[in-house]
């Protein structure tokens, strides 16, 4: 039941197994909570893998479900122990989207739609700093620097020579034309995006304005897929103060269908490179027209 995955996926697998045991026992989460004298929300959080699970939690739940298979109990206890290990992101302090990073770290592939900014895994350091600074105007510089470092660390999945992350990104024209930082930063960023799109495991498709309305107009989303069949896909929706993770098969299927429509409406890979290069050249030209300087403000 264990494999070479991070603590986030381990918690998720353990939670799924505990939910299965509860359902086999014919108990509701409310009934379990009442018997253990804990809140129902705790049982729900344990089962959805959103909080760490202690070995004591596993022991109490197994007793409640009258699990007699000692090997299974021992395996679940070991999973609980491993799920409490720290991921690499813990070294950076309090990272608000650590659950997502955990999923991304163990994912085999990502399908991303970005309407406003370029994909985080394909950002240059200068662009990343400008994006984060703009999104968090009141954040101190050390916090911005920390988030940039986390983003750059995440990008190592793309360049991993042994198991690179498969990334498919559909990017709206708005994200390419919005001047984040300055025109030089944008020109360099789009050139980098084109270079990365030549990697065999990276696909970038541009979605120009003249393609009209499309299914992604409601906002950004990411579909994470895993190599182990027991780890179901997850749809990630980023929020301002909280994020949403959709794991129901019907939800994942709905977003997967939306993504297929987005890919069909977007330019193909070669056309996208040409389109992105042309936008990059426009940014470069504006930069030259300003004398190669960053505009004030």
Helix content: 40-55%
Tell me, briefly, the overall form: elongated
**Helix-strand category:** alpha/beta
**Rg (C-alpha, Å):** 22 Å
Q: Flag low-confidence runs.
A: none
Say how many strands there are. 6
Number of contiguous helices = 13
β content, as a range?
Answer: 5-15%
Please outline what is shown here.
With 297 residues, this protein is α/β, with parallel strands linked by helices. The chain contains 13 helices and six strands.
Could you characterize what this model shows?
With 297 residues, this protein is an alpha/beta fold. It has 13 helices and 6 strands. The protein has a 6-stranded mixed sheet with strand order 3-2-1-4-5-6, with helices on both faces. A hairpin with a 6-residue loop joins strand 5 and strand 6 (244-246). Helix 1 crosses helix 3 and helix 7 (125-135) crosses helix 8 (141-154). InterPro entries: Cro/C1-type_HTH, DUF5753, Lambda_DNA-bd_dom_sf. It holds the Pfam family HTH_31. This is Helix-turn-helix transcriptional regulator.
């Amino acid at each position: 039941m264990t494999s070479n995955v991070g603590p986030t996926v381990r918690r998720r697998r353990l939670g799924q197994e505990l939910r299965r045991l509860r359902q086999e026992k014919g108990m509701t989460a409310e009934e379990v909570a009442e018997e253990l004298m804990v809140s129902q929300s705790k049982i729900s959080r344990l089962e959805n893998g959103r909080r760490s699970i202690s070995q004591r939690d596993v022991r109490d739940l197994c007793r409640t479900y009258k699990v007699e298979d000692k090997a299974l109990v021992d395996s679940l206890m070991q999973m609980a122990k491993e799920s409490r290990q720290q991921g690499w992101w813990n070294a950076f302090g309090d990272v608000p989207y650590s659950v997502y990073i955990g999923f991304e770290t163990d994912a085999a592939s990502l399908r991303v739609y970005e309407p406003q900014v370029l994909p985080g895994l394909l950002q240059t350091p200068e662009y990343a700093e400008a994006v984060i600074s703009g999104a968090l105007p009141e954040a101190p510089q050390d916090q911005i620097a920390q988030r940039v470092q986390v983003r750059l660390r995440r990008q190592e999945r793309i360049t991993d020579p042994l198991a690179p992350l498969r990334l498919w990104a559909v990017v709206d024209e708005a994200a390419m034309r919005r001047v984040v930082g300055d025109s030089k930063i944008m020109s360099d960023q789009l050139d980098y995006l084109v270079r990365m799109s030549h990697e065999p495991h990276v696909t970038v498709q541009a979605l120009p304005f003249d393609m009209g309305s499309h299914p992604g107009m409601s906002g950004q989303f990411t579909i994470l897929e895993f190599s182990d069949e027991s780890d179901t896909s997850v749809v990630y929706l980023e929020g301002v103060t909280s994020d949403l993770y959709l794991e129901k098969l019907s939800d994942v299927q709905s977003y997967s269908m939306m993504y297929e429509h987005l890919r069909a409406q977007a330019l193909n890979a070669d056309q996208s490179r040409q389109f992105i290069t042309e936008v990059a050249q426009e940014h470069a030209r504006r930069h030259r027209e300003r004398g190669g300087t960053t505009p004030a403000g």
